[in-house]
Amino acid sequence: MQHADTEIVSAVTPIIERWRHEEGPLLPILNGIQRELGYVPREVLPVIADALNLSRAEVYGVVSFYHDYREKPAGRHVLKLCRAEACQSMGGEAIAERLQSLLGVKFGETAADGSVTLEEVYCLGLCACSPAAMLDGEVIGRLDEEKAAEIAREVRA
């Protein structure tokens, strides 16, 4: 293992040890790692698998199934845009295109300057206020061109 890998494994070992003997430890371990590092590095998946007596494929399957787990660090801001039917019916597609253009990123990408990660989600529970987004954990309803431009300015500041 390279030096950086050793540092990452050292950072996640206490999290693994904290949860490994509990019932259903995989999700609490993954949550703890993401909370600590901001992402779940691929190089820790074998470490988790070994600690829990699981296959690497089982651990990877869980990480890849849940969209909130990241393989790489996110930007300073995380913008989640709802892509579900209610938001689409209220102009969500135009807002999505506008935000991608304003931010210079596509869904699933982080801006080159590290300012923002743009993610698509399928329902934020704000259907009555669609189209909707979530910026750094705060929901934003009734998105329009003006709010999209304001969001872009805020994350680039």
UniProtKB/TrEMBL annotation:
Recite the UniProt keywords alphabetically: 2Fe-2S, Iron, Iron-sulfur, Metal-binding
**Pfam families assigned to the protein according to its UniProt record, in alphabetical order:** 2Fe-2S_thioredx (PF01257)
Question: Which residues bind [2Fe-2S] cluster per the record?
Answer: C82, C87, C123, C127
What SUPFAM superfamilies has UniProt attached to this entry? Thioredoxin-like (SSF52833)
Give the species this sequence originates from: Chelativorans petroleitrophicus
| Entry-linked InterPro entries | NADP_DH_HndA-like, NuoE-like, NuoE_N, Thioredoxin-like_sf
CDD domains assigned to the protein according to its UniProt record, in alphabetical order: TRX_Fd_NuoE_FDH_gamma (cd03081)
* A molecular function GO annotation: oxidoreductase activity
What NCBIfam families does this protein map onto?
A: PRK05988.1
Provide the protein name.
Answer: Formate dehydrogenase subunit gamma
Q: Which cofactor does it need?
A: [2Fe-2S] cluster
Q: Which domain of life is it from?
A: Bacteria
- Co-factor note (free text): Binds 1 [2Fe-2S] cluster.
Q: Which family does it belong to?
A: Belongs to the complex I 24 kDa subunit family.
